[in-house]
Amino acid sequence: MKVSNDMKTFMPLKNQTIMKKLILVRHGESEWNKMNLFTGWTDVDLTPYGMCEAYMAGRLLKEEGYHPTMCYTSYLKRAVKTLNQILDAMDMDYLPVEKSWRLNEKSYGALQGANKAETLKKYGEEKLMQWRRSYDVQPPALDIDDKRNPRKDPRYDSVSDAELPATEALCDTIARLMPYYEGTILPAFQQHDEVMVVAHGNSLRGIVKTLKGISDADIVGFNIPTAVPYIFEFDDQMNLKNDFYLGNQEEIKKKIEGVKNQAKKK
Fold first, then answer.
1. Is 29 tagged catalytic?
2. Which of 54, 118, 203, 262 has its CB 3.0 to 4.6 Å from that of 82, i.e. a possible disulfide?
């Protein structure tokens, strides 16, 4: 590891066997992140700070010499706008982008729109942690007639009723996400050396869990900060060789702690 004294960023050692790079970025701060609300599939916008976060992530990627040639994102505007800001900062607005609902955030079901601190007070820390971070516990489901149900959103008209979630645990998110990763994103490395995916905390947790073999128990404590490039390096056989967050490591730790302690915010 080499750390730049000027930028205090993580600088990977040069390695001739590392041929492919996957850049994962969680969207910047959203309006509901700021309000400490469960968001899920609710299509909320970025805050001005979130837009700035995204642009600075792009600046950092450019300064560190990254050159993705294919990008993927979700159907939700907070991820789409984050990707747009990143590409603008990199002067790479021309890059091809594919959007998929399979990269959407985990559905928080009937919790969507609820305040996390109030939910903590009402249900207790154990239940809240299960709903937020566990591998296999679903939050309360949305009723079919609930206006928040994605069946009422025209962008999902082509998605079958069986596939549209009324709630999800992380295992459910992984089940609808990883076939897309394995069938679309992974094969892209046959034509592209660097691929960027801009998505959400839980959809990215699903990818990371699979790539790193994180256990069902340990994934509970794994949090991804907003708008911080997370770099995965592979050899030419797509064997994972290295992974790291790009940027000031102390600041990144603080952002991770902030995500971890969201439920305690008022």
1. no
2. 54
